[in-house]
Amino acid sequence: MKRHSLQVSALFNVLRTILNVIFPLITFPYITRVLSPDGVGKLDFSRSIVNYFVLISALGITQYAVREGSAIRDNTTKFKVFVDEIFSLNIITTLISYALLFITLLIVTSLHQYSMLILIFSLQIFLNTISVEWLYNIYENFVYITIRSFIVQVISIICMFLFVKTSSDYITYAWITTLSMGGAYIFNLFHAMKYVPIRITFTKGILRHLKSIMVLFFNNVATTIYLNSDVTIIGFIAGDYYVGIYSTAVKIYTIVKQVTNALLMSMLPRLSNYFNNDNSKDYQNLLNNIFWAMLMVISPSITGLIVLRKYIVEIIAGSEFARSSVSLSILAIGLLASVMSAFVIHGVLLVQRQENTILKITMVSAIVNIVLNIITVPFLKEIGAAISTVISEVIVLTMGLYSSRHRFKVKVFLNRIFAILLGCFMIVICCYLLKIFIVGKYLYIITSIVGSVILYGLSLLVFKAVPKLR
After folding, report:
1. What's the pLDDT at 147?
2. pLDDT, mean of residues 58-67
3. 386/111 Cα distance (integer angstroms)
4. CB contact set of 56 (below 8 Å; sequence gap of 6+)
5. Residue 120: which pLDDT band, with cuts at 50, 70 and 90?
6. Mean pLDDT across 109-121
7. What single string gives the DSSP state of each residue in 17-74?
8. C-alpha angle 459/462/463, rounded to 5°?
9. Which residues lie below 8 Å from residue 252, measured CB to CB, with a gap of 6+?
10. Where are the alpha helices (DSSP H) in 59-112?
11. pLDDT of residue 442
């Protein structure tokens, strides 16, 4: 499988994430207006339940496979055995996940009204397994993944406009979103086998991976709990309407976070390769450049979300979801902690095999998140969930920074700090000035974004602050 340069890999991974932003910006406004908050709430609540079982199936396989596979990808014999064992282990965990899902649906009667949606979304468990996405990440083949994502998104949008017409079509929408990815994931497996023939094998060799994978799994459990429990708890306590309101804010928040994290995720294979081959100088240099690149992307994003929150929610979801702007502004404040904690956890601790430390961090944050959600959601509804999420993100970042203090040192660049601060200040001024002169909300949003990008970009260029990823 062909490997591309680091710049190409980063570019295409960010491009793929941007496409994943653009397409929801096309589909989500349509879906929220057709399905209403209750319909969106049913979909997101059902998806939140399935996510727990997707987690069981995934175990900690993706992170482990990318980290360990990147170190031996040039050794054909070892790598072939490694791929077979990881894929076979994933098949086993998938079977276990489905068994637990069916038992849960039988036992928890309150889920019966969502059983159809849950079963539809549960196809993702099998599809995620056969997608072998981790294999493409190991080889840094983000070009193929990006092209595939684009084709799938286009097909999904066409089907959505053709078949989702009324508020009762939420089940149809669930089928479309699930099956559109299904075809791509099946093609993934056959495409990958042209380069690395994959076979199912149940040998003792599988067991050697379990210790590290299980630690990563429990870490993923804790992470999913503090990322996913808010929607689940709102669903049980407050109902579908508030799930719809909150999940709208979370979708916008997640879109911004994904774009920034794409920079990091595209470079994890290279970071792992540098670290595992004792190339500490290149590892530290690349890590520093990633840190500053992520900070430069997330800072203006936070500023823009807070300033334009009401207009963003109204344009994306409609006036029925106006309440979501409050949650969005709270979540935006936590974006810096969220993105920087992802940098510390994945770029530093995970690459350096500190799974036990990561587990402790995420366990603490998950427990705090659940307790805060249980306390705040009955009184503050989705606003309480947003506050809980931000506090959890701050806890992860604080503990992560303390744990990695001897493993990574940030190089301070005053020109980059000044560029970021000045750029964000100009975004605020730009947005408020344009608000005085422009009446239409669509024109206001477009001019604000364009003006902010230009001003922020000029700030980075003037201070020569843009880091080079190499």
Report:
1. 80
2. 83
3. 24
4. 93, 96, 97, 100
5. very high
6. 90
7. HHHHHHHHHHHHHHHHHHHHHHHHHHHHHHHHHHHHHHHHHHTTHHHHHHHHHHHHTT
8. 85
9. 305, 312, 313, 316, 324, 328
10. 61-72, 76-107
11. 86
Average pLDDT, the chain: 85
Task: Assign 196 to helix, strand or coil.
Answer: coil
Give the whole-angstrom CA distance, residue 342 versus residue 364: 16
Site of tokens 């949008």: 157
Cβ atoms of 229 and 377 closer than 8 Å: no
The closest of 422, 398, 257, 224 to 333, measured between CA atoms, is 257
Neighbours of 430 (CB within 10 A): 22
Cβ–Cβ under 8 Å, residues 192 and 198: yes
Distance between CA atoms of 133 and 384, rounded to whole angstroms?
A: 35
Q: Is 413 helix (H, G, I), strand (E, B) or coil?
A: coil
| pLDDT tens digits along 272-291 | 878 887 788 888 998 999 99
Q: Residue 57 and residue 123: Cα distance in Å, rounded?
A: 12
Q: Would you say 210 and 7 are in contact if contact means Cβ atoms under 8 Å apart?
A: no
pLDDT digits 0-9 by tens, 2-39: 555 556 666 676 676 666 666 666 777 788 778 877 88
Grade residue 250 by pLDDT with cuts at 50, 70 and 90. confident
Q: What separation, in Å, do the N-terminal and C-terminal C-alpha atoms of the chain show? A: 21
Report how many helices (DSSP H) and strands (DSSP E) the chain contains, helices first: 18, 0
Host H or E run for residue 257: helix 240-265
Helix axes 210-237, 61-72, angle to 10 degrees: 150
Cα–Cα distance, 230 to 363 (Å, whole number): 16
Tokens 């079982």 locate to 53
Residue 148 pLDDT > 90: no
Per-residue buried b or exposed e for 140-172, using 16+ beta carbons within 10 Å of the residue's own CB = bbbbbbbebbbebbebbbebbeeebeeeebbeb
Of the candidates 287, 248, 263, which has an alpha carbon nearest to the alpha carbon of residue 382?
248
Q: What pLDDT score does 6 carry?
A: 58
At 363-404, the pLDDT tens digits run: 898 889 889 999 999 989 899 999 998 998 899 999 999 999
* Paired tokens of 103: 């038992």
Residue type, 392: S
